[in-house]
Structures are given as structure tokens and as C-alpha cells.
Design goal:
The chain has 70 residues and is of the alpha+beta class. It has two helices and two strands. Helix 2 links the parallel strand 1 and strand 2. The mean pLDDT is 85.
Length: 70
């Protein structure tokens, strides 16, 4: 991410996280309960990965851009 920072308008930072089974179980419970939802702006097919990158680079998306492989 740090290598891409000069190339995109969004501020990119490095994050380090310790993931444990307990935390993943709690996260899954919260998602299942509808207490949290991911901020997904667009879902595009894998064939449109280049379009997804252009969207991210332009800064027009507010959430994540997900690629569908199914």
C-alpha cells in the first residue's frame, strides 16, 4: 500500500492486526446479527478488474469495490 500512495488520491496507511479465532467468531456473529455491514460500493465481475482499479484510482467510490469470481 505504501508503494501505491503517491499514485492514488486516497490516503493509504499500513495496518497490522492480530487475528484470533475468538475475534473471527465474534465478527461473524456481528455480521450474522446485522450489527455491522461492510461498506461495498460496487460488485463487479472479475473480467472488469481493470474498471474496478480505475474507479479506486479516480476516488469516486466511497466504500470497497468487490470482484465476483462466481
Amino acid at each position: 500500500a505504501a508503494a501505491l500512495s503517491p499514485l492514488v488520491k486516497q490516503r493509504l496507511v499500513m495496518l497490522v492486526s492480530v487475528v484470533t479465532d475468538t475475534r473471527l467468531v465474534e465478527l461473524a456473529r456481528l455480521v450474522d446479527a446485522g450489527a455491522i455491514t461492510p461498506a461495498v460500493d460496487e460488485v463487479l465481475p472479475l473480467a472488469q478488474a481493470a474498471d474496478a482499479m480505475r474507479m479506486l484510482e479516480s476516488g469516486v467510490v466511497r466504500g470497497k469495490v468487490a470482484l465476483s469470481v462466481a
